[in-house]
Structures are given as C-alpha cells and as structure tokens.
Amino acid sequence: MRARRGVEGTTTWWDLVREDFATHGRRPLSPGFHALAAHRLGRSSMDDRSLKGRLAWTLARAARVLVVNLYGVELPPDASVGRRLHLPHAQGVVLVPGSVIGDDCLVRHNVTLGLGSATRGGRPVVGDRVQFGPGSSAVGAVTVGDDVLVGPHALVIDDVPAGSRVLAPVATVRPPRPAANRVDVREDPQRFRGEPSPVAGAGGSGPAEDG
Length: 211
Known about the structure:
By secondary structure, the protein is of the alpha/beta class.
C-alpha cells in the first residue's frame, strides 16, 4: 500500500510508520506513535477495495476507536498528516477531516485544527516545521506558513506568514481582594460553589442575600 496524497507518493505506509517510530524515540508504547500508526494505516487503505485493503481498513478503524478513547487523539484518515509529526504529549489533539499539516511539525497536547463557522468555513492548512503550543488552535480556512511558532492557548483565525510567531495575551496579575470579600472554602464550601449557604442563613446570621 502506498501513502495517499499529501505525503510523498513513493513513500509506503511502512516507511512512514518507521519514521514516526524514530520520531517518538523508538518507544513502542508512545501514545503519539500509536495515534500516527492508526492514522497511516487508515489513510493508506481507505480507497483500497482489495481484500487486503478492506482488512487493513477494518483494522485501522478499530485502532482509531482505541486511540480516540484511550488518548483523546483524533487523526481521521482524510486529514493529511506530513512526515515525522511529533506528538510528545498525545492527549486531546484533534484534526478535522480535510485539514493539512506538513512535515516535521510538533503538536503538543490539547491542540485543535478545526472547522470554521458558517461564515468562515474551511479547514486549516499548516506548512512544514510548525510548532503548536499546548491549548492552541487554528480554525477555518487559514494558512499557516513554514517555521511558524504558535504559542500556548493562541487562536489562529487569519493567515500566518512563514517564520512568524503567534502569541496569546499573557495573563494579568491583580492585587488581592479585600479580606471582607474573600470566601474561605474551608468554612463555607457551598458558598464557594455558588450554592445556598447554610452558614449565611443559619439563625438569621451572616450577610443577607441580594434581592
């Protein structure tokens, strides 16, 4: 079986899996390697109507179900994944069908390449040597150029030129609240969760509720 379009046409499924194995430190129990092996098998067999192809497709579907349920990684066979993709913490990674990611990319946990809205449809196309930080996303018909760094929790909704960095706003540190406005969860855990407080209502003592 040959690899489908998006990866070199002369590269076999087995060649790609061997590269993925090396990329993940030759660790047979690596979740990232498992996810990619299932994806490679599915992509190489999805259009193969021979008996061998149908058996491979059935095995790939079963492997994909296991990968999704064990690791939360969704790499559908009709997403185009380049060579030597590295998934160092393969948890919560989602690529929608039709999305494209190039060679030698690095995708950390909780990353999504997703569909756009009704007015911004399409799927992301990601170049080579792109790095996605934890919690980052690319949504809709956007193109991310080669050698781009997408920082943690950044949201990409516009095209990104090659070599750029995409950074999310840094969290702000604010001064402590006045002591009178603080909630001690050890004394009143229900109030901390937003539930009616027995401490506040017991015997009519405690602060009155807003009406």
